[in-house]
Every structure is written in C-alpha cells, then in structure tokens.
Design brief:
There is one protein chain. By secondary structure, the protein is an alpha/beta fold. The chain has two domains: 236 residues, no CATH class; 105 residues, 3-Layer(aba) Sandwich (D-Maltodextrin-Binding Protein, domain 2), CATH 3.40.190. 60% of the residues lie in helices and 6% in strands. A five-stranded mixed beta sheet has the order 2-1-3-4-5, covered by helices on one side. Helix 3 packs across helix 5.
C-alpha cells in the first residue's frame, strides 16, 4: 500500500484553491484591474493630484542671513534638505530626488540686489521649472511687502545644468507603480486570506479536511501557496505592463525585476499574516470588511501609495513611517529607479521582517480552526 503523501495532498489543495481564485471576479478585479485604473487615473491625469512639495538644497557658499532665505525656508511648497557629504548631494541630483541646488549671492554693497540661481540636472526636468516661479513669487512678495522703497530685492539667474552626464528622467509612473503594486499585495493578502479561511471554516470544509490524514500545517501551506502563486503572477503582470506599456524604470533590468518580486513576496507574506488575524477575529463574514479596512485603509492612505510621506504634516509622518506598506513602497522605489540592491535597503527589509514576526505571533494566538 502506497504511503500517504502530505506534500501531494498539499499540492492538491493548492491546485483546487488556485482554480477557485482565478474563477473569482472580485479577486481578479482587486488584484489586476484596480491597480491599473489607479495607475492611469493618478499617474497620468493631473500628475497625481494635490499640492506638490519640492525639495531643494542650499549651496554651502550661499548667504543665508537675509529675508529671501527665510521666506524660502518658511515656504510650504519648498522643503530645504541637507546632506552630510557632497557625494550624497550629487547622488540626489543625479537621481532626481531634489529639484536642484539654490545659491543666494550676497549683494556687493547696500545699493546692489541679491541674486539667486538654481543648479539642476535633466533628472529633475519635471521639478525645477515649477520651483522657479515659486522662487520668483517669494522674491516679489519680499519686494513689495518688506521693501516698498526698493524696486527689486532679488533676481534670478538662469538655471545652471552643472552636471552634464546622462541621468534618468524620474517619471510619475516610477512613483505610482510601486505604490499600486503594494496596494494590490496588501488588499489581496488581507481580504483574500481573511475571506478564504473564514469561508473554509464556516462551510465546514476544514472539518472535512480533518477527516483525512493531511496535517493542519499542510492545509495552511496548501491554501497559502495558492494565494502566493496568484498574487506573484499579479505582480509579474503589473511590473511588466508598467515597463513595456508605461515606461516604468527597471534600472538594472532583469536583476531589478527579480529583486522587486522578492520584495513583493516578503510583503505578501506579512500582509497574509494580517489576513489570518482578521479571519480569527471575525464572528461573521459581514464583520470581515470592517476589521480588514482598519488594517488596509490607514496603510493605503498613509503608506506613500499616491503621495510622498514627506508631503504629510510633520506630526503625521512618524505614523506613516511606522506602517509596513510605507517601507515596502520605499524599498521597491529604491530598487527600481535608484538601482539599490537588497543590502542597500536592509533597513526597510529588517523593519518588514520585524512586522512579520509580530503579526504571526498575534495570528497564532487568535487563529481558529472551528
């Protein structure tokens, strides 16, 4: 008599569950259709919406003891960032992380005026043209409000493209697509797992499994594996469609593609843990959406899906930066556009792993079989 194979039974469960997922319209819509809709709407209509905040650096030789610098620092549209080394500043310019470097020249004498100039690169061609009108408006406000008897307080020099080597253009899709991929992983992991295991328990399917020799561990692995396979297929489709259709940047080609898939896998496993918690806490299928939304909505809105976390109020930023989706989105953007490897983003991965440990400790405590 052939020995009972736990692995074969697990794969049979995976196959059956995978068929059920692909036949579910809601699973296909939330995993495939919604991310593309959001990519189109938020990525290509209105350039993401909201009021953008532009990052700039101040040249170390700038005169900062003046009203112009104080007004720039107080502006809600411009954020001054500082760098520890010149190499960090150069890297941020080349990668389009900042709009440029502003230098404010001190007047030669009391009758002269301030002059300011912005140095930038082609990686920020979508930023510095918006920064210059803001600077001009700030200058004019000073001219008329603080110095009514002086016709001009400050003037701008033309933008100086001081770095002329080839740089990558940072497009909206490079920000939007990782966020939508993270959203797809989050919604599938939480809602998919929560509804799947609650229904298996509620329809007594799990009870029927108990009548067979298969172990509980292999039941979990079989059902979980089907969700992982489905969602990784979704991730592949989203990344490749973004690359070939919308021009999404995969800076190191196939290596970057595989690194994004690995990050997607890590994120999905963590989000599935949230799904196990919801399925254990829910008393009925009608209570699953409220529980799941408590987990997904804050991350969806505050996790850097549509807007940079740094655009949020300062008091809200620590909350945003504590969420696992924030670190997943940040890691995928760093890998895809900046070309960082997995070791470079070890901090984000480490925080995600800590979230995974905490989530599964809770999941083990609250998960119910019957």
């Amino acid at each position: 008599m052939q020995k009972y194979s736990q692995v074969r039974a697990m794969l049979a469960i995976t196959k059956g569950s995978l068929r059920a997922i692909f036949r579910s319209p809601s699973a296909v819509v939330f995993s495939f259709v919604f991310p593309f809709i959001f990519i189109l709407v938020f990525g290509f209509i209105g350039n993401g919406g909201g009021v953008p905040v532009y990052k700039i650096a101040i040249d170390k030789n700038s005169d900062t003891a003046n009203a112009l610098y104080d007004s720039i620092k107080a502006s809600k549209r411009i954020k001054i960032v500082q760098f520890n080394t010149g190499e960090e500043l150069r890297s941020s310019l080349l990668k389009g992380k900042i709009a440029g470097v502003i230098k404010i020249n001190k007047p030669i004498d009391s009758t002269s005026i301030y002059q300011y100039a912005i140095s930038s690169t082609s990686a920020s061609d979508d930023k510095w043209p918006q920064v210059m009108p803001i600077l001009n408006a700030i200058s004019e406000k000073i001219n008329y409000a603080k110095f009514p008897n002086r016709p001009v307080y400050a003037t701008a020099d033309p933008v100086q493209p001081v770095i002329r080597e080839e740089v990558r253009e940072y497009r909206t899709i490079d920000f939007i697509l990782p966020g939508q991929l993270g959203f797809s992983l989050l919604s599938s992991g939480v809602f998919g797992v929560a509804f799947m295991f609650f229904n298996l328990r509620n329809t007594l399917v799990l009870k029927r499994f108990f009548a067979t020799p298969i172990s509980r561990t292999h039941i979990i692995l079989g059902e979980g594996l089907s969700r992982v396979i489905f969602q990784m297929v979704t991730a592949i489709v989203i990344i490749l469609a973004g690359y070939y259709i919308f021009g999404f940047t995969l800076v190191n080609g196939f290596r970057t593609f595989m690194e994004m898939l690995l990050l997607s896998f890590i994120g999905l496993i963590i989000f599935m843990g949230f799904g196990f918690i919801v399925s254990g806490l829910a008393k009925s299928d009608s209570t699953i959406p409220p529980f799941a939304n408590l987990i997904t909505l804050p991350q969806f809105l505050l996790g850097g899906t549509f807007f940079s976390v740094e655009a949020f109020p300062k008091w809200l930023q620590p909350v945003s930066k504590a969420l696992p989706l924030t670190h997943l989105n940040s890691a995928m953007r760093s890998v895809a556009f900046e070309g960082q490897n997995l070791w470079d983003i070890r901090t984000e991965i480490g925080i995600l792993l800590l979230w995974g440990i905490a989530v599964y400790i809770v999941a083990i405590k609250v998960f119910k079989w019957e």
